């Protein structure tokens, strides 16, 4: 059991970290969330629960822990991120573009943001449906709407994604 857990940890730590970081953006909190997720996984495995798709399970657990954190903190992180967007109107380089994309993402609902983040991590529509609980038949439309919101926000700031 310990070997299985260690393998899951090694194979998925970086991915779980990236997802939590994109949702929370505070390094200390991200570290806490990742620790909680892997402790929870270890406890479930000790109870004898078979995790058939560990990567999907970890995505969902990371999402749930992150959303719980945001709810408990009254979404101040999202507000701070939005305020950061207002600081600089002249965007000139790639790091500024990255910042603008993060600002646009911060305006999405948490579920939409999570969907876009997972999509950017390379998950298939089937995996997205599994992790998010959104019907497979609705994933494309839901993702498209979220990406359109991001595109519109960037277009309003004079960026074109494609």
Provide a descriptive summary of the structure in words.
With 162 residues, the chain is an all-alpha fold. It folds into 2 domains: 1-73, RNA polymerase sigma factor, region 2, helix turn helix motif (Rna Polymerase Sigma Factor, Chain: A, Orthogonal Bundle); 94-162, Winged helix-like DNA-binding domain superfamily/Winged helix DNA-binding domain (Arc Repressor Mutant, subunit A), CATH 1.10.10. The protein has 8 helices and no strands. Helix 5 (94-106) crosses helix 8. The longest helix is centred in the first third of the chain and has 23 residues, at 2-24. It starts with a helix and ends in a 6-residue tail after the last helix. One of its GO terms (biological process) is DNA-templated transcription initiation.
- The tally of domains stands at 2
Choose one word for the global shape.
Answer: globular
Class computed from helices, strands and strand pairing: mainly alpha
* Main beta sheet strand tally, sense and closure: none
Number of strands: 0
Strand content bin: under 5%
Number of helices: 8
Low-confidence stretches: 75-80, 85-92
If you average the pLDDT, what whole number results? 82
Classify the helix fraction into a percent range.
Answer: over 70%
Radius of gyration: 17 Å
Distance between the termini: 47 Å
- CATH architecture label name of the largest domain: Orthogonal Bundle
Q: For this structure, what is the CATH homologous superfamily of the largest domain?
A: RNA polymerase sigma factor, region 2, helix turn helix motif
CATH fold node name of the largest domain: Rna Polymerase Sigma Factor, Chain: A
Family: Belongs to the sigma-70 factor family. ECF subfamily.
GO molecular function, one term: sigma factor activity
Keywords: Sigma factor, Transcription, Transcription regulation
Organism: Labilibaculum antarcticum
